[in-house]
Amino acid sequence: MVKKEIESLRSLPNRNCMRNCNQEDRTSITEEGICKKVSSVIDENIVRCVGAWSDEKIHWLTRYFSIFTIGMRKKWNLNYIEICCGPGRCIIRESGQEIDGTSLAIINHDFFDSFKKAIFIDNNSDSIRVLNKRIQDLGKYAIAEGVVGDYNDIDGIKRILSDMPSRCLNLVFIDPTDCGIPFTLIEAISDSLVTADFIINVAMGTDLTRNIRQAILEPRYNKVKKKYARFLGSPDYFKRREVIAAAKSNNQRRMRSLFMEEYKKNLSAIGYLHTDTEGVEHYYELLFASKNYRGLDFWRKAQKIEPSGQKRFDF
Ligand SMILES: C[S@@+](CC[C@H](N)C(=O)[O-])C[C@H]1O[C@@H](n2cnc3c(N)ncnc32)[C@H](O)[C@@H]1O
To answer: Which residues contact 18 (CB under 8 A, 6 or more apart)?
Structure first.
């Protein structure tokens, strides 16, 4: 990540982090991703244990946030919504470095005050309690608020969003750990907010890579298959001949690309004609979706600078 970005994430070493904990350690010392052993060096509150790729995700989100805000703030009132926001501070398990997570990276962003309202939603009430304390500490409570909510409870999410100021342009970031968000959530947000661009973190390299082949081929994986069909918005993917052929030949890349193709197709059927993805190492794909070409144009501009600060020439 570029130096200025690292500084803006308030990166600090957390010497209490054991570092490089393996999967087994992690299972015993974390609960829902929150470390039970280590607290923040900034405020002694809870932190999430994350992998080194996390700052790449933050880079793409904040780059888009900058370009979107510069392009739109004179013409529109802007809102920001984050679903799966976490408590705001994270520790990178490989380095023991503590950084702002996506929610605090946005709240601390130079352009955050251009926003009319920002809502941060998570189903973990401890995360929301701590995030609200952090919002208070930063003096951002006039704009930002953390709210407990479950993305499976569509009516609950609609109720939360009914508090958002109307006639605004909304940027919605959804950051789950797996492909568990229902397609009806995207439809409901789109209906409630009218003008909303999405950045959705799709767990292609983790959840999907581990389970998609079995979900396609093995009847005992029916529950997982249903979860993916619910994510995609229809079971059609599982009926496609090329999907079954890719599963039989164990062609992971093809199964994944057909999955994303199906998701984009279903998004375009509800008006999100402009979509694009950006990989976060081999773990995630950040999917951008907008009803307006302008949004995609901003996204492409955001993609021009790599997390390392290097300029890309293929854009
Ligand atoms: C990958 S973490 C995201 C963290 C945060 N965006 C960041 O970068 O610091 C996923 C978050 O989703 C939350 N979560 C899991 N299931 C959820 C659900 N059903 N509804 C809302 N949030 C959920 C977890 O509590 C966790 O904070």
So the answer is: 25, 29, 37
What confidence category does residue 313 fall into, taking pLDDT thresholds of 50, 70 and 90?
A: confident
Per-domain residue ranges for the chain? 52-86+100-302
Q: Which residue out of 122, 154, 160 has the highest number of ligand 1 atoms within 8 Å of its CB and is therefore the one to mutate?
A: 122
**Has domain 52-86+100-302 been given CATH number 3.40.50.150?**
yes
3-state secondary structure of 90: strand
Strands (E), 166-291: 168-174, 196-202, 274-280, 284-290
Which tokens hold the place of 255? Answer: 């199964």
Radius of gyration in angstroms for the set of CA atoms belonging to the chain, rounded to a whole number: 19
Q: Give the pLDDT score at 4.
A: 66
**CB 175 less than 6 A from any atom of ligand 1:** yes
Rounded to the nearest integer, the mean pLDDT of the chain is: 94
**3-class secondary structure, 129:** helix
What is the DSSP pairing of strand 144-148 with strand 115-122? parallel
Residue in this structure with the two tokens 């999430």, named with its chain if needed: 48
**C-alpha angle 277-268-165 in degrees, rounded to nearest 5:** 85
Give the global pTM.
0.97
pLDDT by residue (tens digit) across 73-117? 999 999 999 999 999 999 999 999 999 999 999 999 999 999 999
Atom 16, ligand 1: residue with shortest CA distance: 123
